[in-house]
Amino acid sequence: MASRQKSIAAPVRHVVCAIDSQMVYGLGVVMSSLQRTTTEPFRLTIGYLAGTLPEGDRDYLGRIMDHLGVLYSFSDLGNDPRFITQGHISPTTFAKFLLADQNPDAHLWLDADTVALPGWDRIFGLLDSTTTQQGLLVAERGADKLGLPFNAGVLGWPAGSRRDWSSRLNELELVDTQEQYLFNELYAPTAKTVSERYNSLTYRIDRIPDVEPPFIIHYAGAHKPWHLPRSLSGPCLRHSCPWSAWFNAEAEFLRGLDDPSLVAETHRRQRTALRSGKVRWQRDHAGLVFLRILVTLGPLGRVLVGLLGPLASRAPRGTHPLH
Ligand SMILES: [Mn+2]
Questions:
Q1: Could you tell me which SUPFAM superfamilies the record lists for this protein (predicted)?
Q2: Exposed, middle or buried, 176 (CB in 10 Å: 0-12/13-18/19+)?
Q3: What is the CA(273)–ligand 1 centre distance, in A?
Q4: Of 95, 96, 156, 255, which sees the most CB atoms within 10 A?
Q5: b/e for 22-42, b at 16 or more Cβ within 10 A?
Q6: Is 35 in contact with 70 (CB distance < 8 Å)?
Q7: Helix/strand/coil for 109
């Protein structure tokens, strides 16, 4: 009887994320990777700001989660004029504050531009021992980069009340990455830090020891793996570049789909995702501009990649999608 009760109870582990329609395809891939490698079931909350995730997107994601066997719910978070767009960072990134307020239970926030590898869910054990006083669990960030102490793409929220981000946001002057700044100000002094393996930023990949490979790779920045025409993913896969983990997860995701209409819809979304994200002519968009050129060139993209091949070794691993 006890085991029967256990089998029908909702999973204790809780993952939350927030997306807009630009990130739908990416979310399918990361959720497939989580589900394939988890050792225990988890439930998922998908938050979105009002009007940014139309019903068609929600229906599709619902079908994907049903197919994956992930128990999910959506949460319409309304909107807030203080949530601003900064460079490639969408207002949706502020949703983590709203979801943390809404969910006083322990839960894991995960950006949709990530991929999970076996071992990732050990983070729940670490979260169990995170106290309300610590307030938050974050992954270490190498000291080599000037700036904020931690990246907010993977956050463990312990059970308990949250700190008052809203009044602080009212007073905050405009700074780069407003939301990350706020996080660091509120939580960095007390947060529990865990290994960088739980939030391995691709530009840091070279510094992560081979014997301690990433559990969660985070494709931070304007250009994402889904922007690369897959006919050009060969060099990346051959060199096991950080993007190859995402391409492998995508291949598993696609292989697992059996319903023909879901397969067709997923392929349509894969094509749309190639051109998702707004290109801006600023420095941190160079990668996205390059990928958009490759998409536009079609088969000729191969020629360009061939010409640039000799230069690829000069780009740090993880920053460049072609090696
Ligand atoms: Mn991110």
A1: Nucleotide-diphospho-sugar transferases (SSF53448)
A2: exposed
A3: 16
A4: 95
A5: bbbbbbbbbbbbbbebbeeeb
A6: yes
A7: strand
pLDDT in tens, 180-204: 889 899 999 999 999 999 999 988 8
Distance 220 CA to ligand 1 centre (A): 4
CA–centroid distance for 13 within its chain: 18
Tell me if 30 sits within 8 A of 63, measured CB to CB. Answer: no
Say if residues 97 and 167 touch (Cβ distance below 8 Å): no
Rounded to the nearest angstrom, the distance between the alpha carbon of 12 and the centre of ligand 1 is 25
Burial status of residue 154 (CB atoms within 10 A of its CB: 0-12, 13-18, 19 or more) = buried
Please state, in angstroms and rounded to a whole number, the distance separating the CA atoms of residues 153 and 276.
Answer: 20
Domain ranges of the chain: 2-207, 225-312
Closest CA to 12 of 32, 38, 48: 38
In a 13 Å sphere around the CA of 238, the CA atoms on its Cβ side amount to 6
Q: Provide the 8-state DSSP code for 225.
A: G
Please count the residues of the chain: 323
Find tokens 């909350």 and name the residue.
45
Q: Specify the CATH class of 2-207 in words.
A: alpha beta
Three-state secondary-structure class, residue 35:
helix
Q: What is the value of pTM for the model shown?
A: 0.92
Q: How many CB atoms lie within 10 A of CB 107?
A: 25
Measured in angstroms, how far is the CA atom of residue 222 from the centroid of ligand 1? 9
pLDDT in tens, 222-278: 889 999 999 999 888 887 888 999 999 999 999 999 999 999 999 999 999 999 988
